[in-house]
Design a protein that fits this description.
The complex is a heterodimer. Chain A has 38 helices and six strands. Chain A is elongated. By secondary structure, chain A is mainly alpha-helical. In chain A, a hairpin with a 7-residue loop joins β3 and β4. In chain A, α20 runs parallel beside α22 and α25 runs antiparallel to α26. By secondary structure, chain B is mainly beta. In chain B, α2 packs across α4. The chains are: A mainly alpha, B mainly beta. The interface between A and B is large, with 89 and 87 residues.
Chain lengths: 806, 441
C-alpha cells in the first residue's frame, strides 16, 4: 500500500527522535518510537531512521525496548554494520537481573538474522541454556535452531546437541517441547531428533503438563518411535486413549495420527480408534468456528473411506445450515451422498432438494449433482426431483440438471424414457456450453425417444456459425450423425448442411477433421457408420452407490492431519470409483470416446497391419534420404502418354529379352488394401502433393482398377521420365508367375465380388513403371515415394475401418 | 509451524504482518489478497496454495487472520491457534474490529512475539502472557450516553439493573489491573440451536451445541465453584426419572476443571485465568426438552395477475416470561421478483426484498413468548409459473433468546473462594442463538 507523504513523515520522525527534549521525557520518547513502528507497519520505508532507533534502544522502558527491537529486526539485514552497535546493548541486556529483559534481548539477538553476528550471539545463547528463568531457556533453545538455519552446512556442535538432549528433562514443559523442535531442525539432515525408548516414556509421562500445543508437538514427534514389543505398544496406546477423545481437536487429530502410524499392522486396532474418534470429530463439526467445522468435515471424509458406515446414524448432523459458506455446504453434501440408505433416503432427498434453489449457483449445482448420485440407487425419486427442477427454467439449474441426467443415463439406462420426455424444451433455457453439450449428447444417443430432437438440432445447426464453443460444435456433429442413423428422413438435409459448413467454412481444424471423417464414413455405407457411431450407450458397472468396498486405512493415513484433505481436489482419489461432482461432468464423455481410440490402436497392432505401419514409417524415414526430386514439368498430354506407353509395350513385346540401355521397365507390388475405395479426387490430390500427375482412372468400384500417372525425376545424372500404371485386378495372387493370366481371367468375373468382403483382405496393387532414360536409383526412390503415398491413403482408410469394428 | 502471520481488513488492507522465519522473500500479503479477489463471492476456501506457500485463514470480526505454513502441518492446530489468537486479541483489546486492531497494533505485536517464537507456538494462556505484556490497550469505544445508564439520578451508583449489559464483557482484561477497575466475573451459558422443521410442522432435526464460558476480570482469584442443575444427566443410556430432567448427550471440559464433585453434585471447580475461556462444552442431539421456540404457518398462493402472495404466521412458543430479540426471517422468493408490498402487524417490524440474495427479509426486533405475529407479502414476479413455487424454499430464522437455555441447563450457584476482599460482582447470563433454524415450506 503506498503511503502518501512518507518522506515527510520520516523526516519529521527523525527530527523528533534526535530532539534532546523528546529524549528526556520517557513518555514522549516512547510515543515517537511508537509512531515509527506504526509507520513501518503501514508500509512506509523508515529504514533511514536506523541509527536514531539504535540509540533509542538504550532505555529502561521495556515497552520502548520491545518496539525498537522489532524495528531493528525488520531492518537489520539492510544495515549490517550499524546492527553491530545494537549487539552491545543486547549483550548487556542479557545480563539484566530481570528475566523478561534477558529473554527479550536473547530472542531479538537471534532474530537479527545476520550471519556476521553469529559469533557474538553464541556465548549469550550458551549462557541462556543454563539460565534460572524458564522463559530465558525457552528462548535460548529455539535460538540455537535459528542460529543453525542461518549458516546451513556448518558443523553441528555436539556439545550443544547434548545439552539440548539433556534439557528434555527440564522442569518447564515448554522448554522440553522447544528442545524437540530445535533438535528436529538442527538434526534435519540426520532425520531429526532421535526418539528412543527412554525418551518416549519420558515424553509420554510429561504430556499431561504440556498445553494443547505442546501435546500436539510431542505426539507428532512420537510418530517416529517404533515400540519393540506388543506389550509396549499396548501400554502406549492405553496411555494415549484419553487424548484420543480430547475435546481439543488438535490433540485428538494428532493422537489419531500417532495411533494410525503405531498400528499400521493392526487394522482392527486402527478401526477401533476411528470409531472412538468419531465422537470428538462430530463435535468439531458443530464447532462455532466455521473453519474448524470445515477441517473436521474434510477429515471425516477421509475416515469414511475406510469405514463407510461410520457416520450413518448421524446423517442429520450433516444437514447444511442456511448461513453456512458454500465450501462447507459442498463438503456436507458429499458426505450426505455417501450416507444414503433405504431408511434415510427420503429425508436426505428432501433436504438436498432445498439446496437446489440456493442463491449460490455452485451450491445449487452441487446439490443437483448430489441428487444425481443418489439417483444411481434410487432413480425414480431422484428423477422426479430433477425433472421438476427443469420447470424453473433457470439457466444454471437446467444446465446442471441436464448434465446430471446425462451422467445418470450413462449409469442407469433404464431411466432413459423419463429423461427423454423431460428433455423437451430445455434448449431454450440452456446458456452455458457444458449444459448444451450434455443436451446434444442425450439428443444424439436417445434421439429416437425425443420427438422434437430433429427440430432442436436444426436450431443448433442454424446457429452454428455464431457458435463459439468448440465442444458444442463437435458434440453437435456427432449428435446429428447419430440422429441421422435413427431418424434419417428428418435429419438428412440438415446433416448435409452441417457437414458442408464444417468442411467448407469452419476454421477450427478439430471440427473440420471430424466433419471430414464423418463425411468419408458416410461414404462407406450406412452399416459401417452405424457400427462406428452407435457404440455403448451406458456403463452400468460404474453404478451403484451402496456397498462400496472400504479402502485400507494405509491409503490415506499419511495425509491425515495435513493440509491435503482440505484442498479442493482432496477428495478426487476418494471418489475415484464413483466420480466426485466436479470430476463427474466429463466422465461419460471420455468413456464414450475411449473405446473408439482404444479399438483403433488395437486394429493397428494386428499383424498384417503392423507390417504396413512399420513399412510406412520406414519409407517415410527413407524419404528425405533418397533425395529424389520429382516434378510435373514438362507436362505430358494424355495422348503423348498413351503413345509412349504403348510404344514401350510393343517394344517390350518385340525385344523382350533385350536390355535396352536407355529404357527400364519394372514391376512391383505394393500392399495397400484400401486405396481402391479412395475417390479418384483423393488419389489425385495425394499424388499431386508429391508431384506425380495422374492421367486416367477407372471408377472406384470397377475391376480391374487402373490408374495411369507420370512424373519427371530430377536426378543427378540426368532427368528421367517415369510412366506408371497401378493395376488391381481382383484377388491378389501369391504366385507372380501367372499374373497375366489371372488378370485376364479376373477381368470379367471379379467385378461381381463383394466389396465388403474384399476390403479386409490384403490387396496387392501391381505397379508397372517405365522409365526413360534408365536410372535404377531413381526408380527405387520413386517406388518408395509411391508406396508411402499409397500406404498413407490406405491407412487413413484404416482409421475409419478400425472405427467400424467397435 | 507458522512461517508468516498477518491480519487483513475485510477490504484487504494489511493491518499487521509478522515474518517469523525470514524464509520467503515474496510479498505474501499481496499474493494472498490477489488469490482472494480472484475468486467470486466472499467465501475463499480455507486453504489456498501457491507453489510452496500454503495459506490457511480464518475470518473473525470481519478480518482475515492468515497464517502461511508447510504442507504437512496440522490444519486442526493452525485453525485452533488462529481462533485462539483472535480470542486473545479480543481479550486484550476489548473487542475485535479493524479499528481496535489498528489502535492496539503495538500490543498485538507484543502478544505475537510472546505467543510465537520462530513460528512455534509457545503459549496462549493469558495467565502466562499477562506477565510479559507491557503495553496498555487503547479502548476504541466512543463516548456514549448509554454508559451513563448505571449512574443514578443524583450521580450515585444505584444498582438498579440486575442484568449486566451485553457490552459489559467487552473490555480489555488488563484494565482491571491498572485502574483497579471493578472486579467482575461473568459466567455465560451460550447455546446454539440448529433446527430443521419439516413442511408438515414435524421436527426433523434439533441439535444444540452449548458451552459455559467464564470471563474473569478479577486480579486475584483462586478458585470458583460453579454448580449446575443437580438433575443433569449425561448420555443417552442413563435412566431418567420422571419430571423435567435436564439432559445432554456429550460433554467435555476444559483441562483445568476439577471434576471431583461433578459426579455427585454437578459442581465444576476451577481457577479461572484472566480473560475468556470455555469451561465446558456439550451437545444435545434430536431431543429438545421443550417445543422448538418458533413455528411458522405459511400460506403461499398465486393470484390471477401473476403475483405471489405469502401469508406468514410466526408463533413464538417460548414461556411467557421469555422473549426473543433480533428475530429475522428470510424467505427465499423466485428469481426475478421485482417489487414487494407488505402488511405487517406492528410498526417496529420491517421487511425488505433483497434481490441479490433472492429473499424477503422480515425483521422483528422483539417477540414475546406465547405471542403470534403475521405478515402478508405480495410480490410481483414476472413470468411466475407453478414451478417457481419450488424456489420459495425453506425459511431461515435467526434470533437471539436472552435468559434462555434450550437444554434447560442452569447454573445453581457461583461461589468464589476465598471470599474476595474487594466487592466483586458475579454475573450469570444465558443466551441461545440460532445456528441454523430452517422451516421448510
Amino acid at each position: 500500500m503506498p503511503y502518501l507523504g512518507g518522506e515527510e513523515t520520516v523526516r519529521e520522525l527523525k527530527r523528533a527522535l534526535s530532539n534532546p527534549n523528546v529524549q528526556a521525557e520517557p513518555l514522549r520518547y516512547r510515543n515517537t518510537v511508537l509512531r515509527v513502528v506504526r509507520a513501518m507497519s503501514q508500509g512506509v520505508n523508515v529504514s533511514g531512521l536506523f541509527s536514531e532507533m539504535v540509540k533509542a534502544c538504550a532505555t529502561v522502558d521495556v515497552v520502548q525496548k520491545k518496539l525498537v527491537y522489532m524495528f531493528l529486526c525488520s531492518y537489520a539485514s539492510l544495515n549490517p554494520e550499524l546492527s553491530l552497535l545494537v549487539i552491545n546493548t543486547l549483550r548487556k541486556d542479557c545480563q539484566d537481573p530481570n528475566p523478561m529483559v534477558r529473554s527479550l534481548a536473547l530472542r531479538n539477538m537471534s532474530n537479527l538474522r545476520l550471519p556476521s553476528l553469529v559469533e557474538y550471539v553464541e556465548q549469550p545463547l550458551t549462557a541462556g541454556l543454563r539460565d534460572r528463568a524458564a522463559c530465558v531457556r525457552r528462548v535460548a533453545v529455539l535460538g540455537w535452531a535459528k542460529l543453525y538455519n542461518l549458516q546451513p552446512g556448518s558443523d553441528i556442535d555436539a556439545a550443544v546437541v547434548n545439552e539440548l538432549y539433556s534439557l528434555l528433562r527440564d522442569p518447564d514443559p515448554v522448554v522440553m517441547v522447544n528442545c524437540l523442535r530445535a533438535l528436529d531442525e538442527i538434526l534435519k539432515e540426520e532425520g531429526g531428533v532421535v526418539i528412543n525408548k527412554p525418551i518416549t516414556h519420558h515424553l509420554l509421562n510429561r504430556m499431561k503438563e504440556c498445553d494443547v500445543w505442546g501435546q500436539c508437538e510431542v505426539l507428532r514427534v512420537l510418530q517416529r518411535y517404533r515400540p519393540q514389543s506388543d506389550d509396549e505398544l499396548f501400554d502406549i496406546l492405553s496411555l494415549l486413549d484419553a487424548s484420543l477423545v480430547s475435546p481439543h481437536p488438535p490433540v485428538m487429530a494428532a493422537t489419531l495420527s500417532l495411533f494410525l502410524s503405531l498400528c499400521a499392522d493392526l487394522p482392527a486396532v486402527s478401526l477401533a480408534a476411528l470409531e472412538r474418534v468419531s465422537g470428538p470429530l462430530l463435535a468439531a463439526c458443530g464447532s462455532g468456528s466455521r473453519e474448524m467445522r470445515f477441517t473436521a468435515l474434510c477429515h471425516i471424509q477421509l475416515l469414511m473411506r475406510s469405514v463407510p458406515g461410520l457416520m450413518g446414524p448421524h446423517f442429520k448432523r450433516f444437514f447444511c445450515g442456511y448461513a453456512e459458506p458454500a465450501y462447507i455446504k459442498q463438503r456436507k453434501m458429499q458426505i450426505m451422498v455417501e450416507l444414503v440408505n433405504d431408511e434415510n433416503v427420503s429425508m436426505l432427498l428432501d433436504e438436498l432438494k432445498g439446496y437446489c434453489t440456493d442463491v449460490n449457483t455452485d451450491t445449487a449445482q452441487a446439490a443437483i449433482q448430489a441428487i444425481g448420485h443418489i439417483g444411481r440407487s434410487y432413480s425414480d425419486r431422484c428423477l422426479e426431483i430433477l425433472t421438476g427442477l427443469l420447470g424453473l427454467k433457470q439457466d444454471h439449474i437446467t444446465s446442471a440438471v441436464v448434465q446430471t441426467l446425462r451422467d445418470l443415463v450413462w449409469v442407469c439406462p433404464q431411466c432413459s424414457d423419463t429423461v427423454c420426455s423431460a428433455l423437451e424444451g430445455c434448449e431454450e433455457t440452456l446458456q452455458d456450453s457444458q449444459g448444451r453439450q450434455a443436451l446434444l449428447w442425450l439428443l444424439g444417443v436417445y434421439g429416437d425417444g425425443v420427438s422434437s430432437a430433429p427440430y432442436t438440432l436444426e436450431a443448433f445447426i442454424d446457429g452454428v456459425k455464431s457458435e463459439v464453443s468448440l465442444g458444442v460444435k463437435m458434440e453437435l456433429l456427432t449428435a446429428t450423425m447419430r440422429l441421422f442413423l435413427t431418424r434419417p428422413a428428418e435429419t438428412q438435409d440438415m446433416l448435409g448442411r452441417l457437414l458442408h459448413y464444417c468442411i467448407e467454412e469452419e476454421t477450427d481444424m478439430c471440427v473440420r477433421d471430424l466433419g471430414l471423417l464423418y463425411y468419408h464414413l458416410l461414404k462407406c455405407g450406412i452399416e459401417e457408420t452405424r457400427n462406428v457411431l452407435q457404440g455403448r450407450r451406458s456403463d452400468p458397472s460404474l453404478g451403484v452407490l451402496i456397498g462400496r468396498p472400504a479402502q485400507p486405512i494405509s491409503q490415506w493415513a499419511c495425509s491425515f492431519n495435513t493440509l491435503e484433505p482440505l484442498k479442493k481436489g482432496g477428495t478426487v482419489t476418494q471418489t475415484a470409483s464413483r466420480g466426485s461432482p466436479e470430476h463427474e461432468a466429463s466422465k461419460p464423455k471420455t468413456a464414450v470416446e475411449l473405446p473408439e481410440t482404444l479399438d483403433c490402436s488395437h486394429i493397428h497392432t494386428d499383424p498384417p497391419d503392423s507390417a504396413s505401419t512399420g513399412q510406412r514409417s520406414d519409407s517415410a524415414a527413407e524419404l528425405p534420404a533418397a533425395s529424389l526430386t520429382l516434378s510435373l514439368s514438362p507436362t505430358l498430354s494424355p495422348e503423348e502418354f498413351e503413345r509412349r506407353w504403348l510404344q514401350r509395350c510393343s517394344l517390350q513385346s518385340e525385344e523382350a529379352a533385350e536390355e535396352s540401355s536407355d529404357f527400364l521397365q519394372t514391376e512391383e507390388r505394393i500392399c495397400c488394401s484400401a486405396v481402391l475405395q479412395r475417390s479418384p479426387q483423393t488419389l489425385q490430390a495425394a499424388m499431386q502433393l508429391v508431384n506425380i500427375q495422374t492421367l486416367a482412372f477407372t471408377p472406384p468400384s470397377t475391376l480391374p482398377w487402373r490408374v495411369f500417372f507420370y512424373t519427371h525425376t530430377a536426378g543427378t545424372p540426368a532427368s528421367t521420365l517415369i510412366l506408371g500404371e497401378l493395376l488391381y485386378a481382383g484377388e491378389a495372387d501369391p504366385a507372380p508367375k501367372d499374373e497375366e493370366e489371372e488378370e485376364r481371367k479376373a477381368d470379367g468375373e471379379a467385378a461381381a465380388e463383394d466389396l465388403t468382403g474384399r476390403k479386409d483382405r490384403q490387396v496387392e496393387v501391381k505397379v508397372t513403371l517405365k522409365q526413360q532414360p534408365k536410372d535404377e536409383e531413381a526408380v527405387r526412390a520413386f517406388l518408395s515415394v509411391l508406396s508411402t503415398v499409397l500406404h498413407t491413403l490406405s491407412s487413413e482408410r484404416h482409421d475409419e475401418h478400425a472405427a467400424t469394428h467397435l | 509451524m507458522i512461517r508468516q502471520l498477518f491480519i487483513l481488513s475485510s477490504k484487504g488492507d494489511p493491518l499487521l504482518f509478522r515474518d517469523f522465519r525470514g524464509e520467503t522473500g515474496d510479498d505474501v500479503v499481496n499474493v494472498f489478497y490477489q488469490k482472494v479477489t480472484a475468486l467470486p463471492g466472499d467465501q475463499p476456501p480455507v486453504v489456498m496454495t501457491l507453489r510452496d506457500l500454503h495459506f490457511l485463514h480464518i475470518r473473525q470480526g470481519g478480518l482475515y487472520w492468515v497464517a502461511t505454513t508447510t504442507a504437512d502441518s496440522s490444519p486442526f492446530t493452525i485453525v485452533e491457534f488462529l481462533n485462539r489468537l483472535a480470542a486473545l486479541v479480543k481479550d486484550y483489546c476489548g473487542g475485535l474490529s479493524e479499528k481496535s486492531v489498528q489502535m492496539n497494533f503495538a500490543l498485538i505485536y507484543e502478544l505475537l512475539d510472546e505467543v510465537l517464537d520462530y513460528g512455534h507456538i509457545q503459549t496462549t494462556s493469558s495467565d502466562m502472557l499477562k506477565n510479559f505484556l507491557q503495553s496498555e490497550a487503547v479502548s476504541s469505544r466512543p463516548f456514549s450516553l448509554f454508559d451513563l445508564s448505571n449512574v443514578g439520578l443524583f450521580g450515585a451508583d444505584t444498582q438498579q439493573s440486575k442484568v449486566a449489559p451485553s457490552s459489559a464483557a467487552a473490555r480489555p482484561i488488563q484494565a482491571s489491573r491498572e485502574q483497579g477497575g471493578r472486579s467482575e466475573i461473568f459466567v455465560d451459558v451460550v447455546e446454539r440451536m440448529s433446527v430443521v422443521v419439516g413442511s408438515n410442522g414435524v421436527l426433523m432435526k434439533a441439535d444444540v451445541e452449548g458451552e459455559i464460558r467464564v470471563k474473569c476480570f478479577m486480579p486475584s482469584c483462586s478458585e470458583i465453584r460453579i454448580g449446575l442443575n443437580e438433575e443433569l444427566s449425561i448420555g443417552k443410556s442413563q435412566l431418567r426419572g420422571y419430571g423435567a430432567a435436564v439432559r445432554v448427550d456429550r460433554c467435555s471440559f476444559h483441562q483445568g476443571v476439577r471434576l471431583d464433585e461433578f459426579d455427585s453434585h454437578r459442581i465444576l471447580r476451577l481457577c479461572p485465568s484472566q480473560g475468556e475461556q470455555t469451561v465446558m462444552q456439550y451437545q444435545l442431539t434430536d431431543d429438545l426438552p421443550t417445543a422448538p421456540p418458533f413455528r411458522l404457518f405459511p400460506t403461499i398462493e398465486r393470484d390471477g395477475t401473476g403475483r405471489l402472495i405469502l401469508f406468514l404466521k410466526l408463533r413464538c412458543d417460548l414461556p411467557p416470561k421469555s422473549s426473543a430479540v433480533n428475530v429475522c426471517a428470510s424467505v427465499p422468493v423466485p428469481k426475478g421478483a421485482v417489487s414487494l408490498s407488505q402488511e405487517l402487524s406492528s410498526p417496529d417490524q420491517s421487511a425488505e426484498l433483497q434481490s441479490q440474495n433472492r429473499a424477503v427479509v422480515w425483521q422483528i426486533p422483539r417477540l414475546a413468548g406465547g405471542t403470534q405475529l403475521s405478515a402478508l407479502f405480495k410480490l410481483d414476479v414476472p413470468g411466475l409459473s407453478s414451478a417457481s413455487m419450488l424456489e420459495v424454499g425453506p425459511v431461515g430464522l435467526s434470533f437471539e433468546l436472552p435468559k434462555f437455555s434450550a437444554t434447560g441447563l442452569q447454573i445453581r450457584f457461583l461461589r468464589l473462594s476465598p471470599v474476595q476482599p474487594a466487592p466483586s460482582q458475579r454475573w450469570v447470563r444465558y443466551v441461545t442463538h440460532s445456528d441454523s433454524y430452517s422451516i421448510r415450506i
